[in-house]
Amino acid sequence: MKKSILLTVTLLLLTSCLLPSRNATSTPEPVPSTFSPTDLSIYKDGLMPEYQGILNELPYASIYQIEFKIAEDLYNISGSETVIYTNAEDVELNEVKFRLFPNILGGNMHVDEVLVNGKAIVPNYTLNDSLLTVPFETPLQPKESVTLSMDFTVRVAQSVEMNYGVQAYSDNVLALAHAYPMIAVYDDEGWNAEIPPQSGDVTYADMSLFLVTVDVPQNVIVAGSGREISRQDNGNRLTVQYEAGPVRDFYLAASPDYEIFTKEVNGVTLRFYTKDYLQEGAEYALDVAARAIEIFGERYAPYPYTELDFVSTPTYALGIEYPGMIAITERIVAADDNYLEATVAHEVGHQWFYNLVGNDQLDDPWLDESLTQFATLQYFTDEYGQQGTEGYRAALEGRWARIGMENIPIGLPVRDYSDQEYSAIVYGRGALFFEALQAEMGSEAFDAFLKNYVTNNAWKIGTPEVLQKTAEEQCECDLTSLFTGWIYP
Ligand SMILES: [Zn+2]
Question: Which of 291, 374, 401, 412 has minimal CB crowding within 10 Å?
Fold first, then answer.
């Protein structure tokens, strides 16, 4: 997630050959009812060929099957979820924890009929009902799987006041982030769960596989994570099915006002779902996204999926990242907007830093936000040369200057910063750390380090320790004092 950036780079309006289209995809066959959730072949076509092998390498990933039924009003939703959860830890687990984010994002979520391997259990609710704990009668052993299922209803907030309006129905657009019972991450701290501060991202998630059915009023255009695999028009209702995975989350946006603009780059289909009066800005954003995919693909690793979808929403943030999807606030979708290019490049960068390589976004926000701000600097360097570097660096310094360039560490959890510090340090000073690291290591070693960090940690969770170790291995040098000066208290 990001806030405002003062951008001094001259915007270069690229020519484009985009056509509006209402036809998102053309594969009308529904998934057969005999479909087995553990048959992962359905996810293959959503991954670029060089990444398809990952489907054989994530035996413990959670497998979600979700149904959303969205009412005519577009903010009342009912649904059901079945998830196969496997204990990927080396300790037995007595329970599994689900986040119910609508209960802390201004709306509400109610869960019913919780079953463990078909047997009803009584769950326990904490953290303002945003954490559902499902106890196991007998502990789940390492590598053992369990099938959990539940029904749910969600009433989505009708304002964008909470957490930038990531989950809201406003201005005829439904932004449906984290709107299903979402399994929390178990790591060396145990189960990760807290009520997230208003200023940062709210989730921390492992790679999972999703098969999602969305039932919406027929006049609504939906955009979901992953790849549309079937579409059925039932008269006044429409049923659309998506596969997404491996991804860290499933996101959906819907509006009767959406038009779709498309572009192709390196075998990736880019789409922008937005209102027709924003066409020029949307096409410009797709041009920027295409360049960013080329630049980051060259610098870090190829983009993993066959699709990347943008949606415009009324969010308070400039942009918000989701796996294979990006929300951009409606108010900057204009080709001459000073924030659009940097916002698009930043959010595309998150596809590498947050999704492909994950991180604890609440405890280590710098691992995705500072690194993504640095990726945006690299985008401006590669796109505009020295002038691009200097312009964007000035924007980063300007951000840090808002708190007088105070040497606050960049490696704190979101909760330890004030809102102003969070923006200035994690989004400003944090990116400048990577420039300092580049200067210390030398450009060649630094470039190799970033490639290695992405390649070695793809589909996993990166940590500050792993990032430092990867850099030190590459430069064959001790970076302790540099990291201590910038990252740690
Ligand atoms: Zn961000």
Answer: 401
The residues near 36 (Cβ < 8 Å, ≥ 6 apart) are none
CATH code for position 395: 2.60.40.1730
Residues in the chain: 489
The confidence score (pLDDT) of residue 22 equals 35
Residue 197: what pLDDT?
80
Q: What is the pLDDT of residue 316?
A: 87
Quote the DSSP letter at residue 473.
Answer: H
pLDDT of residue 37: 79
Residues in the chain with pLDDT values less than 50: 2-28
Residue 2 lies in a domain: no
Q: How far is the CA of 407 from the centre of ligand 1 (A)?
A: 21
- Rounded-to-integer distance, Cα 373 and Cα 211, Å: 32
Predicted TM-score (pTM) of this structure: 0.92
Q: What is the predicted pLDDT for the residue at 198?
A: 78
Give pLDDT, residue 10. 29
User: How close are the terminal C-alpha atoms of the chain, in Å?
Assistant: 24
Looking at residue 24, what is its pLDDT? 40
Ligand 1 center to 141 CA (angstroms): 36
Q: Is residue 79 part of a domain?
A: yes
pLDDT reported for residue 27: 45
Is residue 222 one of the residues assigned to a domain?
yes
Q: For residues 5 and 284, what is the distance between their CA atoms, to the nearest angstrom?
A: 18
Residue 180: which domain range? 43-254+358-489
Give the residue carrying structure tokens 């964007």. 392
Spatial separation of the C-alpha atoms in residues 350 and 1, rounded to whole Å: 9
Total domain count, the chain:
1
Distance from the alpha carbon of residue 96 to the mean position of ligand 1, in angstroms: 29
Q: Which residues pair with 76 in a beta bridge?
A: 155
Cα 389 to ligand 1 centroid, rounded to whole Å: 19
The answer to whether position 372 is within a domain reads yes
CA 57 to ligand 1 centroid distance, Å: 28
Give the integer Cα–Cα distance in Å for 12 and 384.
Answer: 9
Residue ranges with strand state E in 141-172: 145-155, 168-170
Question: Quick one: which of 108, 177, 109, 129 has its CA closest to 317?
Answer: 177
